[in-house]
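seq:
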Amino acid sequence: MTSAAFLILLVLPLVSSQSYHWGACPDPKIQPNFNIEKYLGTWYEIEKLPASFERGKCIEANYNTRPDGTIQVLNSQFYKQKFRTVEGTAVIPDPREPARLKVSFSYFTPYAPYWVLTTDYSTVAVVYSCTDVLHLFHIDFAWILSRSRFVQPQTVQYAKQLLAGEGVDVFRMKPTDQLGCKD
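struct:
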C-alpha cells in the first residue's frame, strides 16, 4: 500500500462528520478592506458544514483583542446537557490581507485558516476554512454567522449562494439550533 493511500485510510475516520472533497482547497475571494475592530464581539452560528467539534446547540463565538495584539476566540455551545467553552487564538499573518486570519485552539495544533469571505459587521458574516491533505483531498469548513440568533431565510440563501459561487459545496450545510438559549 502506498504511503498516500495509507494516510488517507488513517485520516478518513477522523473526517467522517466533516465535508471533504478530492483535490486541493479552493481559493475564494475574501472581504476587501476587512476591519477586525468592527468584527470583534459576539457572533451566533446560523448554519455550518458539519464539524466534529461542533455538535451542540446555542453555538456562538466571541472575539476580543488581547494586549499582545492577538485575538481571543471564545467559542461556546450547549452539548450533552452542559455548557462548554473552548478558547483559542486568532492572528492576522499578513496585514495586507486582514480577512485571512489563522486560528488555533491548542498549543499542540497548527493554526488553521479562518477566512472572512463577506461581512457587513452588524448583521451577517460568511466564514470559510479549508484543510488540504497532500493536495489529494481537502476538508471544508464553512459558517454563516449573525449578530442575532435568528436571521431571515434570504440572508441564509445569500450566504449559501456566495459560498457556492466560490466553489464550496453547501449541500451538507446544517442549521444550528438556537432555540431556548440563554443570552
